[in-house]
Amino acid sequence: MKLLRWCCALLTLLAGGFVVAIAIRGSARPIVLNQSLASGAMLLVALAVTGLFLLGAFLPDPSWRSLMGVAAQWRSFQLERDRTRWFVPVLVVLLLCQGAILWRLVGANVQAVDDQADYLRVAREIRELGGSGYVVDLFSGRFLEDNRHPIYCVLLACHPSFTLGKYLSAFFGMLVTLVAALFAESRFGATAGVLTAALLAVNGALAASSSLVACESLLTLLVTFAWMQLCWGGMRTPHGAMGIGATFGLGYLTKASAFFPLVITFLHALVVGDRGLARRLVPASLLVVGFVVISLPLLVRNIRAYGSPLHSFNTKLLFADSFDEGRAEPDLGTINNARHYWSRHGAGGTLRRLGEGLVVEGFVLVRSLGPVPLESARAIPGSFLFAIAIVTMLVDREGGLRGRLLFWWLLFFWGFFGWYLPIATSDRFTVPLVPALLVAASWGVVRGVRVFLEERMTQRIALVGAVAYGLLFAMWTIVG
């Protein structure tokens, strides 16, 4: 009990520090997207978390014992995969809700600007080269586009129009919801599958990414599929490990950030496990082999054209103070850029950038889990889903979620894009993790409710609640 209270006291200080940082920064200018609502929503969430930890620090022993009893039931709860004939009809209704939301957002996206225009430009260049000409130019190092990776551009090159690009992204977005819901249903039961479908169908980050001519919805699908392969135990067999690596390779051919979960998965496979290092090295190596085989054209192009297999346009922006500054300065190499940054900012400036970035990126993460029409206030429902997902991942005993590995993915994305904040911040950067996090949140909710209610009642509440949730936010988006 004493240890729990001390932990709550420490977390109170940490959360309180976030409140102060938000208030000070928000007094000068709003934190995210220049919206005062963002600062207000973020401050409200931080205050609520601070109050919750403060309450825990002073909670009497009997109350702590009661909470620990409920937590023990929740953690040890085993649910046989429930089945219901209503799963498929409800899933169809929720997919129609998502389709209506995407139809509204795609219609509101009327002009190809910034990244969307660049994707169309690259797609037209590929179409002019032809398929074989494009592959030859990649291997020879003559095709120099280093900010937009091939797969989405190649798909778009079939007919490089603004309209096709939007509907192509929308298709991948709806496929994400379908695949994640079917996975949750097969792994944890129909109730969890329905909740997953409802949360993803109206998810703001997925909807926004799926209405743009951009690769994020395809990347989200591939990262989600790689996580599903891991949950199915793919690393236990040689062909499974290579298959996961190949999926990450497809993700890397879509966007460079797919390399992040690959690295974490490789390290996790190498370090975690009760087998000897030599036996752990085999699946970890096969993971890398699968990745290299699939992403070979881009790796070869990067070596020939830029001298580094993992070169990306955004690499030289990592140690810049703004996008314009990074674009204007020469690329001296990552290590030299880091030294130059340290010489200008020192430890104080570096820690301040990282601290502010973690606070803001934390807001972006919780906001990315909320429903579409709430704008920055999505952080309020998103924070509850985020908390449930974190707890579920950390206590996941059976490995059904690969929760510990997913948690490390989350920490890496949080830290990296927190550091990247002065260059850019967006839900698009964190959306690849959203389906897995919402599956974890759905499974956590089912386990929590089943501690108090019997299975049939839980199922009925989930079915009615999921349909109501989807219809509410779909109608709100369309009317609004």
Description:
The chain contains 21 helices and no strands. The protein is mainly α. The chain has helices at 2-28, 36-57, 61-76, 87-108, 115-129, 131-140, 150-157, 162-188, 190-201, 204-209, 216-231, 238-252, 259-271, 277-306, 323-328, 334-367, 379-394, 403-419, 427-430, 434-450, 455-479.
> Structural class given helices, strands, pairing?
mainly alpha
Nearest-angstrom radius of gyration? 23 Å
Instruction: Give the rounded overall mean pLDDT.
Output: 82
Written as H for each helix and E for each strand, in order along the chain, the element string is HHHHHHHHHHHHHHHHHHHHH
| Fraction of residues in helix | over 70%
- Tell me the number of strands: 0
**How much of the residues is beta strand, in percent?**
under 5%
Low-confidence stretches: 26-35
**What's the tally of helices?**
21
Major sheet attributes: none
- Give the distance, in angstroms, between the N- and C-terminal Cα atoms: 49 Å
- Apparent shape: globular
Q: Helix and strand layout, with pairings?
A:
Elements lengths: L1 H27 L7 H22 L3 H16 L10 H22 L6 H15 L1 H10 L9 H8 L4 H27 L1 H12 L2 H6 L6 H16 L6 H15 L6 H13 L5 H30 L16 H6 L5 H34 L11 H16 L8 H17 L7 H4 L3 H17 L4 H25 L1
Helix pairs in contact: 1-2, 4-8, 4-9, 4-21, 5-7, 6-14, 8-9, 8-11, 8-20, 9-20, 9-21, 11-12, 12-14, 13-14, 13-18, 16-17, 16-18, 17-18, 17-20
